[in-house]
Design a protein that fits this description.
Elements lengths: L4 H12 L9 H24 L4 E6 L7 H13 L3 E6 L1 H6 L1 H12 L4 E2 L12 E7 L1 H9 L5 H11 L3 E6 L6 H4 L3 H17 L2 E2 L11 E2 L1 H5 L7 E4 L3 E2 L1 H10 L3 E4 L1
Parallel strand pairs: 1-2, 1-4, 2-3, 4-5, 5-6, 7-9, 8-10
Helix pairs in contact: 3-5, 6-7, 6-9
Length: about 260
Amino acid sequence: MVLGYATATWFIELAESFDVRGAMDHQALSQRLDTLIAALLEQKRRELNAGRKQVRVVVTGDNFSSLPAAMLSLAALDGAGFQLLVTFSHSACISGLKNAYTDKIDSTCIGALYSDLQPTADADYSSLFLPALSTNSLSKIALGIRDNVASSWAFHALNRRIKVIATLDPECLSREATGFPLPLLSRLAEYVTTLERYGIVIAGKKIPAASQKLLTLSDILTFSGDAGLRVARHTLITPAARDEIRRQNITIIQEP
């Protein structure tokens, strides 16, 4: 590595700080070396990111199983020449997911930077990426609630016609993994559709058709939504459930 004038001067000053016996406080030397290394890494990041388009990344939730797939996406963005500005939600911080991400990002995406800033009028970025969007943030964005970092950035981007891309949390992709009842799965599917109507791109696999084989009265009584209840093609519906469906005028959508 070729050192600049300022770095060379720093080494000269460091050498002069030794006395004639070559004695210097070891801790002080270690601290100054750490400072130099941090400064060189920051300079390297600035040089690498010069002129790169910025992608704001907001990590949500506490699901560690989403990390490998999310890192593939982040590495691909970094490799394509985008600068990553990474922000973590409160749940990601307290769950330890932030630490897991930063360890991977630091070793994979050399140009990534971190920021805890909330959206501002002068925030500059080319797109927003929400990897493994948690069901909590998915629901808040769909309902227009802007009280967390993901929903705040999502509406900031939408207001400025900035492209928003999201992938879904694994718990939205596997009914077997969560045991969510059919009405809840249907509601989450509605929220995904709502985000798409906002103009948000949902990348990857979407919420699958519910595989529940029997639809009962209790399922209908706990359902609420305007977009219709999605059921698998061969789902059996009990007579009492059919009566309640007619009473509530619920539209049944059979998935292929």
